[in-house]
Amino acid sequence: CSSNNQCTERSECNSPVTMTGDCDDPVITSFDPMNGPPQGGTTITINGTNLGAQFSDIISVTIGSHVCTSIEEQYRTGEGIVCNIDTINSNTEDSNSISITVSTSSGDKTATSNEQFMFLLPSIDSFFPTFGPRSGSTQVMITGNNLDIGNTEQTRVIMREIINRRKKRQNCPDTECSIMSINTTYITCYSGSAGSDDCLMIVAVEVNNNAFDSSSMFTYKPDPTFTDLDPEITIPAGGIKLTFTGSNFDVVQSPMITINDSRFNMTTESCLVENNDTTLLVCTTPRITPLSAINDAIDTAIQYKVVVDGATGPDSSIDTFELVLQRDPTFSMVIDRELQENDIIRIQGANIDSVEKSEIIVYIGDENCQVDSTSDTVVTCQPPSKEEGTFLVSVRVGNNLFFNETTDEWMVTFSGNTTGTVSSSQTDPSVAIIIGTISGVFILIITAIIVIFAILFYFYHMKSKKTNQPLSSSSGNEVVKMSQNIVYLNSSSQVIPQTNPAYLRKEDIHIYDEIPYSTTTHLHSPTPEYLQILEDPQNQEDTVTSTLSHPRSPTSEYEDMAPDQSGEDPQNQEDTAPTKPDDISSNTTHLQSPTPEYLQVLDQYEEDPQNQDESLIKPNYDEEDDYI
């Protein structure tokens, strides 16, 4: 036929016949695809000439040992054959030419391709990310080799649950990752949704119905949630930070915020999770255009959308997530341009309150001027240390607004070092304050310790002084030897010497000795007769009654032995009076010998040491504190 220069049946030629007779030998000019998996299943389109006058003329199509079955519905007379490689159980990579055998009137003829068809095995090396939200739409990047062999339009990425000894769960069915792009080493796809938050899936690349699995798993996690927004404002220039509070923000790989308000052009900026805090999502506000629509929208809420893969973002129509459009801040000049020590810089502007203070950055030259405070018309900042000279001031608001004019209104002159940042010869005031405070506290602590030690030393010294003070007689007191201590019987006027000390009222007498504690010793208050004896031990005034028997008063034997000297030489200076007898048990009554009354008391004590029958009179104390 002259129309296609193909050898066809005369009845099928609708154009003038150029010649009649046998057709020329068949020729393969091209085929596609040029590769596929060794397991078969690839559909190949073969182009050429004289490929049979009709479909029945095609005897066979083979690729080495692989058979490719022709598809009649897709046969193009003389010029095209479509066949499908039969499926075989093979994992062997190979390559062969394509051969087509055609039946003609002069016999069977075979055409062989110049190019070879390659049987290749796809493989997956890795994919990222390895998790995503349950709602899907996570962009997954798969890397490997031979990923684009076979019929790429038929290639699929499947996520399927691990098949083990347990039956596959109903809530984790297979899901397809929709392919967006594919080449030999990369496939990009978007994950489908899962039926559960904890589905663990194998990622597989399916080529011509042959699956090639990865060695890693993809995990579906709970969708992110949104609970709050701060700040709830934006500006036409965009570029300022919005912070969303919620949960599970880390499951989203590429969150974005989009202005989708019908009054403006659609613009988009990226969001990210900062510092691995899964509860905070920080987005940069998009620029709003066109400018002609902005004035009417000032102080109104604008519509936006936060894209978190397939999960649901915040609803911009409710108060919690409302985003109000404010005017752009502007800055006109530096108010104070001649700076001395401790001076701050003030910059005049308008609409400054449209943004947070953290969005405003002031530079002196190329150094940062720390912003101290802001109002709607003025920003103040503490300048860094500068040598004498003139420097340009500039202001940046967010990412998109810059004010860096080179006019005189933006130039500042330094006269020596300022104190915003410490110079090499000066100390930063804040550092000095901290050092001074620490030093003061240290001095106070040391002083307190010294005072405490001084007080303790004073009390210790006074106690030691009191303990070591020698015993001496005070005014109105009498020092009494322990041998003269006595016990008084309340029922008589007799005075009985006692080795244990008697407690007397402290205003009457002090007795100094170590007093052993005993529950059986009954001490009594002194009688009036004893007090008289203390005042006049020799009874010179004869005030003591004669009926009082006192162990220290002179006995008749003493008077008989020294009748002339008892009054003339009471001290026995001439040694005329008899000396103290050695045997205190003699019949001679001695001043220190026990009286019969005393011995009677001792007998009672031995018979009843606990004084159960109270035969020994109990002490008669007025107040315990009155005795020492």
Question: How does this model look, in words?
Answer:
- Strands 26, 27, 28, 29, 30, 31, 32, 33 and 34 form a 9-stranded mixed sheet that branches.
- The protein has 5 helices and 36 strands.
- The protein is mainly beta.
Structural class: mainly beta
Question: What is the chains' assembly state?
Answer: single chain
Largest sheet: 9 strands, mixed
Give the helix tally. 5
User: Hey, roughly how much beta strand do the residues contain?
Assistant: 25-35%
Indicate the overall shape. elongated
- Provide the helix percentage: 10-25%
Q: How much is the average pLDDT?
A: 78
Distance between the termini: 151 Å
**Rg over CA atoms:** 60 Å
Number of strands: 36
Parts with pLDDT < 50 across at least 5 consecutive residues: 418-429, 471-524, 544-552, 560-567, 577-592, 615-628
Features:
9-stranded mixed sheet, 628 residues, 5 helices, disordered C terminus, 8-stranded mixed sheet, mainly beta
